Amino acid sequence: MPKLVALDDGHGIHTAGKRTPIIPELGRSIRENEFNRAVVRLLKKELERSGFDTLLVASTDEDVSLKNRVDLANTRRADIYVSIHYNAFDGSFSGSNPSGIEIYVYPGTLNKESGKLANAVGKYLRQGTKQNWRGIKEANFYVLRESMMPAILTENGYMDNKNEALLMVDENFQLEVAIEHAKGICEYFNVSYVSAADNKSETGFTDVSPNASYAEAAKRAKDLGILKGYPDGRFLPDQTLTRKEFVLALMRLYDKLR
Ligand SMILES: [Zn+2]
């Protein structure tokens, strides 16, 4: 049975506060959830590619309560709970501007499974974009306390530090953070991380696992030039075929057989 990872994007998009100061270059503030939900969406893909099941505990833009988030993870018996956040200090770019990454676990669990998970994720979060590593800390946060499985809450930068605020909407940074979480989670469960490039070189598509029942068929169809993927390298196995895609594939097949 694949392990089930509960993914929590922290807040609703409209939750009061939970945003950067106005950024003159953008002419607006960035909401914390813009970053959190982007990372959760990417992390879901990274984990599923590596063989995990995922559970989005707040899959819409509504402001889902912490209780509902945790209740869902508990009811579905998720194996771990991962909550993605961006930190805040004083809500201003002036004055002292702390920066960096920290990971929270429930008090007393540093040497337990949550601490082990935090260590594995922290090892990878420290890589990539250079950021201050503030360490693994304990806090009596609702989602850490009420979840029945090992749980971590990651703060991936500071919203009131201008440089880190701008990173929130940097798609490369979002992907990097998602991949780092995925690598740490894989390491915690002793599973090998499968990158999009690994899949592409084996099956021709970033989102087709070599283990998928249709992997060989998809690869042969691609090699024969009958089916193409999307320009970004994905096959989108669960996408429905439109009539125009069908007729294109059909005529490519006809030309091949003629
Ligand atoms: Zn937050």
Q: Overview of this structure, please?
A:
This protein is an alpha/beta fold and 258 residues long. The protein has 2 domains: 4-189, Zn-dependent exopeptidases (Aminopeptidase, 3-Layer(aba) Sandwich); 203-257, no CATH class. Helices cover 40% and strands 14% of the residues. The chain is built from 9 helices and 6 strands; from the N terminus they run βαβαββαβαβααααα. It has a 6-stranded mixed β-sheet with strand order 2-1-3-6-4-5, with helices on both faces. The chain is globular. The model has no long low-confidence stretch (mean pLDDT 94). Zinc ion is lined by residues 10-11, 32, 85.
Please compute the radius of gyration using only Cα atoms: 21 Å
Number of spatially distinct domains: 2
Task: Spell the H/E element sequence.
Answer: EHEHEEHEHEHHHHH
Label the overall shape: globular
Q: Please give the CATH class of the largest domain.
A: Alpha Beta
State mean pLDDT (0 to 100 scale): 94
* CATH homologous superfamily annotation of the largest domain: Zn-dependent exopeptidases
Computed structural class? alpha/beta
CATH architectural label of the largest domain: 3-Layer(aba) Sandwich
Distance between the termini: 45 Å
Amount of helix? 25-40%
Describe the strand arrangement of the main beta sheet, using strand numbers: 2-1-3-6-4-5
Low-confidence segments, given as residue ranges, are: none
Task: Please describe the biggest sheet, giving its number of strands, its sense, and whether it closes into a barrel.
Answer: 6 strands, mixed
Q: What small molecules are bound in this structure?
A: zinc ion
Strand residues, percent:
5-15%
Number of helices: 9
